[in-house]
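FAQ: What does the model actually see?

It sees only this:
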Amino acid sequence: MVYAKKGGGMLIFLAIVSILAALFVFVAMPMIAKAYASGKIALKAAAARDIALLLDSTYSSPFDIKVEYDIDLSDFRVVISNKEVSIESPSLSADPSAEKYPFVPINDNPNIILNNPKKIIFEKKNGVLSAIGVT
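And it is asked to produce this:
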C-alpha cells in the first residue's frame, strides 16, 4: 500500500519563496552598493544641509543678500518648499534616498523647484527669497 506524503506542497512553496528572496537580495544589493559607492547619496545629504543652513543665514540677515552656491547638482532636483530643502533624483518617481533638511523662513513661504542646476543663485530682497538655477 502506497501512502501520499502530507506537507510536500508547503515545502515546495517555502523553497520557491526562499529562492525569490535570494534573487531579490542578489539583484538589489549591487544596485544599492553602486549608489552608495558613487557618492551621490552623500552629496545629496551634504547639499541639502548646506542649502538649508545657507537659507537660515540669509533669512537671519537684515540686509538684502545675493549668494552663489556653486556645487554641481546637475543630477538632481532641488525643491525648497514647506520649510525644508529636499534633494531628489528626477529619474525616480519616488526617490527612496531623497534627502531633506529643515530651515526657518521669516515672513516668507518659498516654493522653489530647480531641475538639474549646476549652480544656484539665491537672492533675498525685501525679505523675499528667490533662487535661479544655472544649468
